[in-house]
Backbone:
């Protein structure tokens, strides 16, 4: 019988209760290690955003095919979907910092390969599919590791603020990354963008190396890999709160996020604004998400995280419908901004509630299950691609937005799960449903 670990003690930095409002907005940055983590996160996601624009435009320019765009995205999602549980198990058993360092090095190397292929004029769709698959394998380990690393850097009372500030870093890159990539594609070409991404990856790696976290020594495996993975699955199976959080994240991933992959169609066919316009379209949700993340960070240890999650998910779906069907570029930019505002609230609340409901011993595995949801996002672009091919991209996005809004409302009808999460949000308790449980 292996007992679930109790909540870890507070780590260094400025502890104590968090305040609410603007003074609380940057409280987690008082921790030195979190500051370096924040820099590394910003650089890592800047590289990802720029790679998405460069690769998306390269594929669209060569093939003019929504299905080709969806296929390369799905190639990333397949390993994330099927290897995330293994990645979570590894995260719980190895040094998370070293895991993140090496995964970032590999990502930079893959971008270098892409740059060389484009420079030599030998790049093909199969190259892009293969490299996307390899990036997905690395992400299956990097993503749960990055999420599980945050509680080692700040106090529990600052956890939502740390999650929100991580979102601020990501959303800053969503603003600058696509816009910069769109300009650079026009100025120095796709290959030049890939080389620039390599430099950004080096910055991310160095920042991660400068962290000196108070991370506990990973425990030795008590059983073989299958049993270790089963432990995480049984943990989730005993918590309706975690289950409903994963389901709402699944709806966000499958129904809402495919709109990003279809943006080249809006830039090229709907609005006829080219690669610079594509960068603008992809940047506007980042602007909104940055504003939303800063508001969430200012909330401090906000008690009604459950209400924040449901409201923001519903609003995001509604704004996606309005974006897809209005037909005006200026209104579309506004609605994309509001999509970003709503998405930041949904993601921050979901992530924080998962962290608060999870024991540190299995945190990597629980977060890996959550990351599997994001692995389904590129797979969700395949039906979205078919819908866009058959009905047009605007109607495909509108259908996805409507489905997200309906799912968010329906998810609120699970009384046990939401009662547990309301308790966690108010009292900052961990293991609301299975605290003290033992699993063989």
Residues:
């Amino acid at each position: 019988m292996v007992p679930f670990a109790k909540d870890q003690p507070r780590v260094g930095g400025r502890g104590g209760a968090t305040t609410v409002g603007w003074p609380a907005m940057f409280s987690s940055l008082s921790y030195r290690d979190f500051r370096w983590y924040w820099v590394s996160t910003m650089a890592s996601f800047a590289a990802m955003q720029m790679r998405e624009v460069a690769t998306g435009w390269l594929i669209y320019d060569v093939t003019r095919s929504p299905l080709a765009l969806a296929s390369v995205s799905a190639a990333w999602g397949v390993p994330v979907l099927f290897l995330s549980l293994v990645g979570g198990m590894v995260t719980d058993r190895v040094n998370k910092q070293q895991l993140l360092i090496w995964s970032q090095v590999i990502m930079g190397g893959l971008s270098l390969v892409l740059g060389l292929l484009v420079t030599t004029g030998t790049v093909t769709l199969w190259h892009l599919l293969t490299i996307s698959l390899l990036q997905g394998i690395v992400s299956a380990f990097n993503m749960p590791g990055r999420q599980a690393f945050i509680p080692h850097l700040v106090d529990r009372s600052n956890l939502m603020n740390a999650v929100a500030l991580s979102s601020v870093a990501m959303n800053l890159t969503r603003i600058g990354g696509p816009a910069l990539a769109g300009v650079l594609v026009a100025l120095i070409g796709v290959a030049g963008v890939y080389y620039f991404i390599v430099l950004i990856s080096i910055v991310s790696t160095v920042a991660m190396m400068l962290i000196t976290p108070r991370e506990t020594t990973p425990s030795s495996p008590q059983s073989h890999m299958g049993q270790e993975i089963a432990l995480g699955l049984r943990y989730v199976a005993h918590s309706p709160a975690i289950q409903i959080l994963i389901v709402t994240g699944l709806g966000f991933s499958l129904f809402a996020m495919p709109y990003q992959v279809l943006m080249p169609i809006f830039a090229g066919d709907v609005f006829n604004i080219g690669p610079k316009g594509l960068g603008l379209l992809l940047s506007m949700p980042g602007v909104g998400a940055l504003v939303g993340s800063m508001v969430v960070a200012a909330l401090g240890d906000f008690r009604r995280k459950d209400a924040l999650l449901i409201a923001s998910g519903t609003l995001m779906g509604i704004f996606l419908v309005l974006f897809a069907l209005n037909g005006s570029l200026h209104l579309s930019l506004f609605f994309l901004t509001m999509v970003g505002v709503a998405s930041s609230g949904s993601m921050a609340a979901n992530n924080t509630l998962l962290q608060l409901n999870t024991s540190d011993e299995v945190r990597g595995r629980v977060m890996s299950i959550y990351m599997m949801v994001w692995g389904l996002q590129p797979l969700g672009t395949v039906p979205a691609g078919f819908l866009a091919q058959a009905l047009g991209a605007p109607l495909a996005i509108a259908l996805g937005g409507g489905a997200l809004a309906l799912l968010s409302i329906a998810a609120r009808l699970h009384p046990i799960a939401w009662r547990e999460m309301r308790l966690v949000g108010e009292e900052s308790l961990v293991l609301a449903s299975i605290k003290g449980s033992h699993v063989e």
